[in-house]
From TrEMBL:
GO terms classed as biological process: alpha-amino acid metabolic process
Protein name per UniProt: Kynurenine/alpha-aminoadipate aminotransferase, mitochondrial
MF (Gene Ontology): 2-aminoadipate transaminase activity; glycine:2-oxoglutarate aminotransferase activity; kynurenine-glyoxylate transaminase activity; kynurenine-oxoglutarate transaminase activity; methionine-glyoxylate transaminase activity; pyridoxal phosphate binding
Function: Transaminase with broad substrate specificity. Has transaminase activity towards aminoadipate, kynurenine, methionine and glutamate. Shows activity also towards tryptophan, aspartate and hydroxykynurenine. Accepts a variety of oxo-acids as amino-group acceptors, with a preference for 2-oxoglutarate, 2-oxocaproic acid, phenylpyruvate and alpha-oxo-gamma-methiol butyric acid. Can also use glyoxylate as amino-group acceptor (in vitro).
A single GO cellular-component term on record: mitochondrial matrix
Keyword Lipid metabolism among UniProt keywords: no
Organism: Albula goreensis
UniProt pathway annotation: Amino-acid degradation; L-lysine degradation via saccharopine pathway; glutaryl-CoA from L-lysine: step 4/6
E.C. code: 2.6.1.39, 2.6.1.4, 2.6.1.63, 2.6.1.7
Segments forming domain Aminotransferase class I/classII large: 130-437
Keyword Metal-binding: no
Cofactor: pyridoxal 5'-phosphate
Domain of life: Eukaryota
Annotated InterPro entries: Aminotransferase_I/II_large, Class-I_PLP-dep_aminotransf, PyrdxlP-dep_Trfase, PyrdxlP-dep_Trfase_major
Amino acid sequence: MITAADDLRFTLDTDSSKTAMNYSRFLTAVSAARKPSPIRILTELQQRSPPTLISLAGGAPNPNTFPFHSATIKVKNGPSVVFDETTMKRALQYSGSYGIPELISWMKDLQINLHNPPTAGYSPERGHMEMCVTTGSQEGLCKVFEMLVNPGDNILLDAPTYSGTLAALQPLGCNIINVPSDQYGMIPKGLKEILSRWDPADSQKPGSTVPRVLYTIPNGGNPTGASMTTERKREVYELAREYDLLIIEDDPYYFLQFQKPWAPTFLSMDVDGRIIRTDSFSKILSSGLRIGFVTGPKPLVDRVVLHIQASTMHTSTFTQLMVSQLLHGWGQEGFLKHVDGVVEFYRKQRDAMLSSADRWLKDVAEWHAPAAGMFLWIRLKDIADTQQLIMEKALEKEVLLVPGGVFTIDSSVPCPYVRAAFSLSTPQQIDEAFRRLSVLIKEAL
Ligand SMILES: Cc1ncc(COP(=O)(O)O)c(C=O)c1O
């Protein structure tokens, strides 16, 4: 599948004489100091070798001593995932830090098919598209931040944003700069204005304070439900080129877009190799299996993998094999058909939430219909801060929502928003929850 991004790409300046990215200038000292683990290199080597190889090298335990024998996992609409004795032994064993080869290669094919990234054809040094498996996209995000962010660095993002991002970023001691946004995501004009504090020429100077990293959730933002337009992405990408920024495209709701064609991604526009994209299977296959992916320029993904080598070593081989078998059984067509079914479910849920919001909250609140994801971001018109209303009064009435302050950079600033998820409750429950909320709001006024 060739996406609308193809047209777009040709409108960008793809002049190959432009100097290649200097990836080392983005790394923290900790990340730059990481070295490959010699034992992990041997594991990767063993993974690629024929079964005739006799290895006395690794410290791997003997899987014959493990208690699990085999398993058959029934799949709702398709062939079972079978772990025969041999596969089970592999599933229970250590594996390579990039991810198991058959899952990575399946995912690379999918990325190329969906996003057709220009970097797929680049040399490694110029930022060839590389991928690794992570234990949920949260692990990838956290490791990407730790690779790039020093104390005192200026980091750009459009808040309110995912609380897991703030949890990973704020302890790094960076200075988070809030870029204005609306229901269509980050506003390029606002970004331009912020960046105009600096001279782009200073970005390459050692010790410069020019931001080097921009983070955004381009589809169905958590918590706002905002989805960025193609035009905005293109403008933000051009600004990133001017100021030599890396863009972290955190896109776990990409597969939950309610309209087709799906929006072209930053990855699809990445003529320079400055996009680090995180994908997640949490919303479409399972959140508990913890499977996510980092896609980006090889010099940076390699650094993330060095961090993985030194921490988790790899995402569970068992869950990777389970997902890989499912995907190989389905093929891309089967996978995308499954995704269509998931989208249909969430579309109905969203519509149910919107009509309940209309029924109960029209006079006291406002919102935008989200084009992707699983959240409705509701502004209560006459309540300056929702913390007490939600955490005390709503809880008493047995309604659970998230007060908006959780998603802001400074949670002590009053926030009139609440986040409502339409993922788990039935339309009847959603309706009853909003009825109770409307009573509470009226009482509070
Ligand atoms: C915007 C965003 N990024 C990342 C994640 C992490 O997802 P996971 O680690 O399950 O892939 C979430 C989870 O809700 C999210 O909303």
